[in-house]
Every structure is written in structure tokens, then in C-alpha cells.
Amino acid sequence: MGWVKFYGVLSRDVCLKKSFFVLAVACIALSGCAAKEARKSFFYPKPPNSPHLQYLTSFSIGRDLEGERLFPFLHANADKNNIIVKPYGIAVKNGRIYVTDTALSRLMVIDLNEKKFSPVDNPLIALRLPANLNLDEKGNIYVADTLRQEIVIVDPMLQSSTAVGNELKMKPTDVAVTKDRLFVVDNDQNELKILDRETGKLIKAVGKNSDPKKGLSLPTNLMLDEKNGFMYITNQGTGKVVKMDLDGNILKSIGGFGDRFGLFSRPKGVFVDDDGYIYVVDAGNQVVQIFNQEGKILMFFGQRGSGPGTLDLPADIFVTREKIDYLDQFVDPGFVREKLIFITNQTGPRKVSVFAMGHAREEAANSLEAVNPQESIPEQKKIP
Q1: What CATH code is carried by the domain that includes residue 218?
Q2: pTM of the predicted model, to two decimals?
Q3: DSSP readout, 142-187?
Q4: What's the domain count of the chain?
């Protein structure tokens, strides 16, 4: 076993040299893992303040889930397909991250249970310019496709699709689902269209006003807060987040244009978690600001950059209490995770950033309402 034939002569030296070479190559390939420094934890607010969020990890390409490879060049073809180029919408359910990719005109599924990327290239689905997406109780995926001018409904097995709303000639940028209705943001008409979920027929359109300052203005993202009976819509035209009741009556707005806390440069993704906190993604200032139900700012996280914990042209956000075992390895031992936060970045090396909201292990869990704004917001009045 340990001998080779070299020009007709059995040579033990040659065998040993070859064995040493193979071992050396393996050691060099694996040394990257051994040589890496211990993972550093990034928290918000920054020390010495008590932490409320921790940056965990990010996903952009298949190998982000598979870890270090011995011979990465052997996987080059797979990597070309298992990649996210320009993500926008995001949703999470049962350990799967669903992301729309506007550059590749497709849906990507990141399965954290199976540790794999699964691009949806099925011609029976054929997305053209997918923006935001949402899932219903059965796992059907509703995609707002701005070029198809309709809502594409993809079955849970990712094998087929149907569509609604094409006859409305709209430019849908987001969609929310209830048991009997679809709520669709029409960016072109500056309104929210409410459709019958079963038939896809228009019930009514709301939010449009001759004075754009009083209605929707270039609306982009939508969050339906059924628990409290409200809807929140971000607007590129006014820099505001408009709050409506479920009948479409405008109740109030949050923010406006500016680079101070509580204001926005380009508000996009919006989410309301089960505690009622309102998260607003600001693509211009590249941060996420968190408000209470009254519209009072509680804290922010993120900053410009491409390093861990930074955001790079963020677009959408999803918050969940779902326990995803794969992500536990990234949680600092001194931090208790309560929620997971997923954010898409349209540029930079981290296309999907994952954060955990919680508290330091030695401290009792507390509401963000108890956070001293001076701790979570730097002394400067402008967003960094």
C-alpha cells in the first residue's frame, strides 16, 4: 500500500514524498479554518451600553451555508447559479428564507434546515421583475412583479403559479394576504388596491389624494398588522410611513425627509413584530429605525459600510420569533436571543444580513420602551 513503482523500480522514498505532498496540500487547504480568529460579536447599541441586538451572519452564495471547501474550484459551476445578485423582498417560514432577486428575475430559497440554496428557475413561474413577496397560511408565495404588472402566486412546492391583477394595469411593489383579501401597493397610481383573494377582483382602491402630502406618494412597501388593525406603507415621494386602518383610512404618518433620527432619506421595508414595534428600513441612510405604536423612535441599528453589522442599500426586513437551530451557533454565549431579524442588502458582500434581538444573559429581558434613547442614539443628531 505504501509503495509505488517508479520507472520499473519500487521506491519507498518516492512513496513517502508523494504521501507528504498530499498531506501538505490537505493541511494548507484546511489551515484557513484553523487559522481564523475567534468570531467577534457585534452589538447594538455599542458598548458600554446594554446590548439589544447582535449581528449574527449573512448569506449571499451557496458556500455561505456549506462552510469552507477543500477544493472550491470543483464547485465553481454550482456557485454561479446558487447566488443572490440584487435582492429585494424577503420572508421567512419554517427555517426557509425566501428572497426575490431583481437582477436575476427569480426567487431564491435559502433552506437553513438542509443548508442549501435553491434558485427557482422553473419556466412555469417566469418572474420578470419581482419586488416584494409574502406567504399565506398554506405556504403559497405571493410575489409583486412590477414588469408583469400582477401578483404571481407560486405554490408551496415551487412547481407552478397563477396570477391576479393583470387587468388592473398596475405597478405592484408589495402585497399582503389575509384570509379573504389581498392588499397590493400600486406605485404607479399612488394607491393601495384591495382585491378579493379568491377571485382577484378589485374591491376598492384607497390612499390616493390630489395633494400627495395628504395621501400615498410613490408607495413601495407594505406591512399588515392584523393584530392591532393597522397597515403601514412607506412612501418615496414624501419620505413618510403612512398608517392606515384595515379599511384604508389614513390615520397618521411617521417621519418625513431628513437625516435626523425619526426622519428618513428613502424609507423602504417596514415590519411590525408581535410586540407592536415598527421597524423601518432607510435605504438612503442605510439604517433600520425602530418605533413604538405612537411613532416614538426607540433605537436604531446598522450603518453605512460593508463590514459585519453594516447595511449596504438595504431594502426589506422580516422579523420572527421562529427558532432556527442553524443560527444558534452565531449567538454570543452572553446574549439571549428573543427574535431574529432578516434584512436584504441590494449591494455589497452581504446580501441577506441576520441579526438577533434580545438581551445580555446576566440581565433580565426588558422592553425597548425602557431603553434610554441617549444610549441607543448617539449624541449627534444626524444619522451616521
Answers
A1: 2.130.10.10
A2: 0.86
A3: EEEETTTTEEEEE-TTSS-EEEE-GGG---EEEEEE-SSEEEEEET
A4: 3
